[in-house]
Every structure is written in structure tokens, then in C-alpha cells.
Amino acid sequence: MIVTPNGFRKGLTVWFTGLSGSGKTTLSSSVHDVLLARGFRVELLDGDDLRNHLNRDLGFSRRDRDENVRRIGFVAELLARNGILVLVSAIAPYRNAREEVRRRIGNFMEVHVNAPLEVCEKRDPKGLYRRARAGEIQGFTGIHDPYEAPLDPEVRCNTHQESVQRSTDKMIAAITKYLGSSAPRFAKIG
Q1: Mean per-residue pLDDT pooled into runs of 10, the chain (190 residues)
Q2: Can you list the domains of the chain with their CATH numbers?
Q3: Which residues of 130-152 are buried (b: 16+ CB within 10 A; e: fewer)?
């Protein structure tokens, strides 16, 4: 939590972005468990869960994807405004939408959960790449639709090269450093 000059405690939003199958949910869940065990007020917002509940009226057009990110960002902003450390795991394929959320929230850390498309396709935990390649899914990010990787994320976790534990340790170090700093951004990790 960040304490403002008037003594108000403000949270932090940590946004895990990357292709489907890159390890966003696995990593954010691991970070969540560590932070919870250390006594942090932490909430995990998973893009798939939110698509099934809050955002089920949205499709996968660019406009709908941007609206999905805005809605997730609004929920994250509400939680962070009340001193919660918010972990968001969502593809959020377009840079502009992520930057809009960053500007609105303020205390925002972007994490690029990076794995090459080939690795994500091999992992394919939900069979989505297979279905996209077979033509069963149209507009799939990374196949038919672009994924705009962050240009300058605060943290980059190369999940095809580092273990979940290594990426988790990197994230805990980055979050701890951020929360201990009064600077709006900090030196890049990884």
C-alpha cells in the first residue's frame, strides 16, 4: 500500500498481460498466494472469470476487447482506491487500452508474461489454439488478431525460460520495491 500525504492508503494494480497460454493465470495465482500468506490485502481478477460473469455480453471485436479492459480496469481501480493490492490476469491485447487503464488508475504495474507463440500453442491448456487453427474460433489473439506486447513494462517474466517460482520471486521483489518507493514508477526488473 502507498500512503499519500494525507495518510490515505492507496493500493496497487499489477496487470499481467500476455498471449493465451503464456502463464498469466498460473503466475498471478502464485503471486496472490504468496502475498496473501504475507498478510497483504490482495484480490485476483482473472480475465476468463470476468468474461464469464461481468463481461459476458462482450464479444471479441476490437471495440469489445477494449471495453473488456476498461471494465476490468474500473473494478481494479475501485479496489486499489480502497487499499487493495489488485492482481489482474488478462490478455488485454492492445497497448492503447492498457495505457488508458494505467492513466486512470495511477498506481499501476504492467507485467509482460512473455512466451513465444509456438510455446503457447504447445501448452494450449484450453485447446483454443487448436480450435483457432482449425477455423472453429475466429479473431483469436496471436493467430488472427494482433497482440501488442508492452514496449516498456515494469516487469517481464519470460515463462518459457524461467520457472514459475523464479517468476513469482521476481514479482514479489518488484511489488515489494514498488510499495516501498514513493516514485510512481521504478527501475525495470528482468
Answers
A1: 48 95 96 93 88 74 86 94 94 94 93 96 90 89 92 96 97 91 40
A2: 2-179 (3.40.50.300)
A3: eebeeeebeebbbbebebeebee
